[in-house]
Amino acid sequence: MLNVASDLLYFVGLDTLKPGPLQDKRVRQALNYAIDADAMQRALLNGLGERIAVTLPRSAFGYDDTIKPYPYDPARAKQLLAEAGYPNGFKIPLITRQGRYLKDKEVTQAVAGYLARIGIEVELRYVEAGV
């Protein structure tokens, strides 16, 4: 079987314009430390794909190999949340599509599970792909 690279990216976009926890850089960093993207890639995507640190495909002009992804470190995530004033976490909506991309629903559920481990309650909202 031949595997061919694509430019499809899985990422979580954060609305930092509305007042709330996401306006604090430490909270956004905590979200990154909380998610074990490598484990998700192995378990959900059969090890296919490549982890990158930015929302730009490796083949794109301007891609910077020197930027490294956050390591999985839930203890650091909890520490950052406490420093930001959210030691018990908070609740956040996560709006996503399902059924358009390979394992998109499962990836989103895994992200919600990892965030729950550091005290962030995720309210999953599924929308049609065109929304």
Verbal overview:
By secondary structure, the chain is of the alpha+beta class. It has one domain: Roll (Dipeptide-binding Protein, domain 3), CATH 3.10.105.10. 32% of the residues lie in helices and 12% in strands. The protein is built from four helices and two strands; from the N terminus they run H-H-H-E-H-E. The protein has helices at residues 25-34, 37-44, 74-83, 104-117; strands at 90-97, 120-127. It has a two-stranded parallel ribbon with strand order 1-2. It is globular and about 50 Å long. The mean pLDDT is 90.
In DSSP terms (H or I, runs of 4 or more residues), the helix count works out at 4
> What is the fourth-level CATH superfamily?
Dipeptide-binding Protein, Domain 3
- Radius of gyration from the CA trace? 15 Å
- Tell me the name of the CATH class: Alpha Beta
* C-alpha termini separation: 35 Å
CATH topology: Dipeptide-binding Protein, domain 3
Q: So what's the overall shape? A: globular
Number of domains: 1
The helix-and-strand class reads: alpha+beta
Low-confidence stretches: none
CATH architecture: Roll
Report the major sheet. Answer: 2 strands, parallel
Strand order of the largest sheet: 1-2
Helix percentage range: 25-40%
Strand content: 5-15%
Query: In sequence order, what are the helices and strands, one letter per element?
Result: HHHEHE
Count of distinct strands: 2
Average of pLDDT: 90
